[in-house]
Design brief:
Length: 148
């Protein structure tokens, strides 16, 4: 049978345990941190200022392009509107050709708007405007505000 030996401390005892606080090594002093902050702020401000100038120039360019294109876009919109109104009028003439006493743009010869001059265009309601067009166009325009 083997003999057991007890684990004992080394001769002369264990070395003392170091339990004192060891301060962290300081890489920067307070002055260096403030100087670094000032330099970083100056570089950031410089970059922001120049980027801001570039963005402003691009915004002016985009706005100028928009101002140049808006009259063309409005003219195209108005042209498409008048084209649809004319198509509606021609379709009405074709549909009501066999109806006795029917005059296009009136209700059996009576003007619809009695106090409005004949050469003034009255904007039709949306259902009347798309009456002879595709139903998908009416749905798209009528519920456009629901999509936005």
């Amino acid at each position: 049978m083997a003999t057991h030996t007890q684990d004992l401390p080394p001769k002369g005892g264990y070395s003392p345990i170091n339990f004192k606080r060891i301060p962290a090594r300081s890489y920067f002093s307070g002055l260096h941190i403030f100087i670094g902050y000032g330099i970083a702020t100056a570089i950031g401000s410089y970059a922001y200022y120049h980027t801001h100038k570039v963005i402003k120039k691009e915004e002016i360019e985009m706005r100028s392009g928009e101002f140049a294109l808006l009259p063309l876009l409005f003219a195209e919109r108005d042209r498409a509107f008048l084209k649809q109104v004319r198509a509606n009028r021609e379709e009405e003439e074709k549909l009501m050709a066999n109806v006795e006493g029917w005059e296009t743009g009136t209700y059996y010869g009576e003007p619809i708007y009695k106090t409005v001059p004949k050469n003034k265009l009255i904007d039709p309601i949306i259902q009347e405007f798309y009456a002879h067009g595709p139903s998908k166009a009416l749905t798209r325009q009528a519920f456009f505000s629901s999509w936005v």
